[in-house]
Amino acid sequence: MYNSLKQICYLGESMPPFHAVPGTSSEYFSFLAIAILEGLAIHTWQYRKEPGALWQVWLQASKGLWLFVLVVAIRSTTIQQEIIFLQIETVLSVVVCYQWFRFTAEISGFERWMSMGLIRAIGGTMGFISVVILTNKWHGLIWNSFRMEGGVFHAPRSAIGISLAMPIYLLSAFTVWINIRWALRNVGLRRRQAWIFLLPSPVSWAGHILCFVLGTGTFAPRAMGFCLSSLIMIWGFHRWRFYSILPLAKEVLINGMEDALMVLDDEGYIVELNAPAKAIFAGVTVSVGSTFEEARKEWPEMFCPAADDSVSVWEVQRRQGDVTCYYRTTTSSLRSPAGNVLGRVMVFKDVSREKLQQVRIVKQERSLAMMAERERLGRELHGGQGQVWSYFSLTTQMLRTMLARQKYEQAEQELTRLYQVVQEMNTGFRESIYGLQTSVAAGLIHALEKQLEWYRKYCELDVRLELRCDWRQGMLTPGTEAQLLRIVQESMVNIRKSAQASRARVILERVDGDLLVSVEDNGRGFDVTEALASSGHHGLNIMRERAEEAGGTLNVVSQPGCGTVVWLSIPLVGEGWDNCLQ
Fold first, then answer.
1. 63 and 41 in contact (C-beta within 8 Å)?
2. To which H or E segment does residue 107 belong?
3. CATH class for the region spanning 257-350
């Protein structure tokens, strides 16, 4: 090892070296700069998907390697070692220049304006220069002589070597122009970031210049330049959020969101809980670092599907004091670009207010439905049994008058009619009560069969149900089935009271995507237009109201002496209608 100062001369320039004495403060400072450079490269690696970040990683790593080669070079003991380190150091300077250009062009967006041919030409030129440097031993185009004089290593550069240095200087100047152009074309944070990215380069150049002018001294100028440029980058990462403004925005959004967020890793450990999630588990031992199973012990209803599920949504509830909270839970898998499952994200959206509103809406809908049904029943009673009481009152007074005047034959006739009315009233009441008791809970077809059985048994009416399709549960909604049953019941009431029919048929068939229900009788018929215009016929209007509520249409076809057909068309829903065959 040489005990005197050594000077490495390359590309026609002499560079004052570090002291050869091991353990000097310049070497320690150089190692500190190397550690900062490599640490910056490692830190930038996490943003490698962002524009220019990967080139910044290689740039900082190459600068650290370049400085490490310089530190090791001062400990070389032979001229062969000096030559090797000279070649490596020179190649690294070319690599650093090219990486700085690619980083600046990519992060500024200028790369989009450049043709791939130009980028490949620049890369090919830098690669060619590097190959020429590494193969100088065989051709001597850059350095044609090496010698040691007074402990100083000399490597004079040839004319070709000087010309090969020009592309490197031009590329550096072009990179500076790109960076300045980027800064001037942007505003706000992007402009500040552009100037901060440009500032480390002149600081590094100043270190190189001071190395030639002042020598090394206690602190190596080149190491100091690299160290200061790295500190500027670190300050930029901290102050101006290089690459991390989007993650910072996500962090602010997560912490400010109203929904609770829980992030799990692939082993089931909790790695993140935002403020609403912490509020859910307040007072229990669930925190970052605990397992999901521990959280489930505190909240048994909470469920988390297998890690290979992409997205799962379900609702859970949690009792907190005297209040029950409802949450809509969404679980998504966290996957790497390669498709590997890294964990899961669980979002708990508080839907307690929505639940309360839904309950209120359901209650209101039920109340409105009950009021509408009571109104219909009121109109039915007013049109039927409700008017009988007025008839009873008038007939009773008339009978008293007849008896007082000893008109016994007329009184007997009125009593006979009154008895018939009472019989009809009894039948009507039994019919109404049975109709109200019949529901579609056990199925529409079962309810229709029960209703028609009553007419066969008590009204001596030949009535049958004909299914001309393969009926299945789910072809109609329960509400629609209930309205259909009431329409058929009202039709049967009209047949019993007014049609004087001996036979009736209720037919269910499918026409395209609709269910067609027809109620036919062989009664005396009536004039539909006249019946609809009459104020006393509420039944037809009520049936049409029910059909409209069920989303269907109702038509009545009849003529005096020709019987009556009530047609009801209702759209089918669910999977069952596909199997309904004509």
1. no
2. helix 79-108
3. alpha beta
